[in-house]
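The passage that follows is intended for readers who have already worked through the single-chain material. We present the inputs for a multi-component assembly, then the predicted structure in tokenized form, and finally a short commentary. You are encouraged to pause after the input and sketch how you expect the pieces to fit together before reading on.
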Amino acid sequence: DIVMTQSPDSLAVSLGERATINCKSSQSVLYSSNNKNYLAWYQQKPGQPPKLLFYWASTRESGVPDRFSGSGSGTDFTLTISSLQAEDVAVYYCQQYYSTQYTFGQGTKLEIK
Amino acid sequence: EVQLVESGGGLVQPGRSLRLSCAASGFTFDDYAMHWVRQAPGKGLEWVSGVRWNGDTIGSADSVKGRFSISRDNAKTSLYLQMNSLRAEDTALYYCTRMRVGATKDAFDIWGQGTMVTVSS
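Having made your guess, compare it with the prediction:
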């Protein structure tokens, strides 16, 4: 199985500051035939189901604010929030769908400093 | 409104069975692959099993293989998870989720609120 490892496990950032979450896969999730990274990012707020933020590593889902961005390729990926808002407090997960043994990262808990 | 509503969870003894259901509405159900993802209390997300639009199984996690089976009824726009030989470690909130577009390789774009399964004597 492809192992997804996120860093850090938790993160405290001041309002208006940048937050960066990293995700590393144990093998490449880049499909050479279509040059797409089979990587998604989700946001889960307390008591709620996960919400899709990005697919293909950097394609923003409809309705996601543009302060969120996704980047990376191959085995290393990043979720960035350019200016943290109070409503961004959540746990963030990356997930690979390159393999049909879909796997998630362990999650990164984002809090306000 | 696109919606997934899970049901069927509850308290069950180890070794017993339970069947979860997920009712879909607001979209053409048989256009999409569907999956179950679970989350143990205070833990992260774990994919459980998935099924193609036509009912063919995509696969199951090693942790549930041979014990859980996924199915769907497109006429009833419903997804199911038959869980047998339940163990304490199966205790979790079980989410029904829709695969975005692809047949087997895409992100999960719609999620239900989940149904809680507790395995305990």
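Commentary: Residues 70 and 81 of chain B are 5 Å apart (CA to CA). Chain B touches chain A through 24 residues (CB under 8 Å). How closely did your sketch match?
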